[in-house]
Amino acid sequence: MSSNMATRCVACGTIFRVVQDQLKVSEGWVRCGRCDEVFNALEGLFDLDHDQPPPWKPGDVDKAPKRDSDLANTAADLDEEDRIASRFFRPEQEDVAQTPAEAVDERFRVDFADAEFNTALLSEDEGGHRQPVPNDHLENSRHARKTLPAFVRHAEREALWRSPLARILLSLAGVVLFAAFVLQWSHHFRDQISAQWPQFRPTLAAWCVLADCSIEAPRRIDDVTVESSSFTPAAVGTDSFKLSVTLRNRGPLPVSMPSIDLTLTDTAGQLVARRALHPADFRAPVSVIAPGAEAPLEVLLTAGNPRISSYTVEIFYP
Predict the structure, then answer these.
(1) Is the N or C terminus of the chain more exposed, i.e. has fewer CB atoms within 10 Å?
(2) How buried is residue 70: exposed, middle or buried, by Cβ count under 10 Å (0-12/13-18/19+)?
(3) Which residues in the chain are classed under CATH 2.60.40.10?
(4) Burial status of residue 244 (CB atoms within 10 A of its CB: 0-12, 13-18, 19 or more)
(5) Is the Cα torsion angle 14, 20, 21, 25 positive or negative in sign?
(6) Res 271: pLDDT
(7) C-alpha span between 299 and 241 (Å, rounded)
(8) Cα 222 to Cα 219, 279, 315, distances in angstroms
(9) Residue 210: its pLDDT value, please?
(10) What is the mean pLDDT of each successive set of 10 residues along the chain, which is 318 residues long?
(11) Contact status, residue 234 vs residue 301, Cβ threshold 8 Å
């Protein structure tokens, strides 16, 4: 006997795999794992690899032997896991003539013929006037909107954003945001704007009155250079020195007077003193260097150490 044998239940038509030892023990009698019907498996035995299953009709159950208690006890139980799950063996289906495509089409067909979409939020009375809809009607309308298909809600949102009112509100919001950006930019660069475009200085001055700020000459350290400097004793035999620095503005705009970092070293190159000198320390007559102009600065310092042999000056904005 082949090892891939099967039989068909005479009551429900289900096909099960069976083994030779199983049939020998029960002398061919088995119990269906789906409907519990007891029948002789040898009558419908066939080879799954070479034979076709025997024909079956629901009326064939009358031909099966009667189930008595002894027969039921000696019959071998067919396990549900041995049932042949194949698209060719589906006798339990009522409509076997229906194709898979027809079944899928019927399963996914959606008919909106009886659907009701309640979009009216007001009802008319006998005089033709609009009356508010009761609360329960409003709740039903909200529920109906929640149950609308996703593509309908998406289309409604797009229509809302494309409406004239939405376009006007978006335009106004864009203008307000752009104006806020221009105001913030103008406040941050007010010194450079006032120097480059003097016609805007009155407007910026009025704004600074409200914002509690001030307008100064721009700070452009790259436009300022040290033309010359010197550090000499003020008098012989004293510890006083005179620092002279000449600054030049090479840029196209007036700039604020920078501060000077003075470093003093001895003959061994060790640091003796270091000091930051602001424009007020030089008592400069002006605090702004015009474009292309020079600003000479001088100040007297007391070093307190005769070992000074060299110095260094650097400009910076604090």
Answers:
(1) C
(2) exposed
(3) 221-316
(4) middle
(5) positive
(6) 85
(7) 8
(8) 9, 18, 10
(9) 86
(10) 79 86 84 87 84 73 54 74 60 47 51 50 49 54 66 82 88 93 88 84 87 86 92 77 91 91 86 88 85 90 74 91
(11) no
Q: How far is CA 196 from CA 190, 217, 247, 311, in A?
A: 10, 10, 21, 36
Q: How many residues does the chain have?
A: 318
> If you classify domain 221-316 with CATH, what class do you get?
mainly beta
**Is residue 27 left, alpha or beta, with left meaning phi > 0 and alpha meaning psi from -120 to 50?**
left
pLDDT of amino acid 313: 93
Strands 29-31 and 76-77: parallel
Strands 15-18 and 5-8: antiparallel
* Position 234, amino acid: A
Number of H helices, E strands in the chain: 9, 16
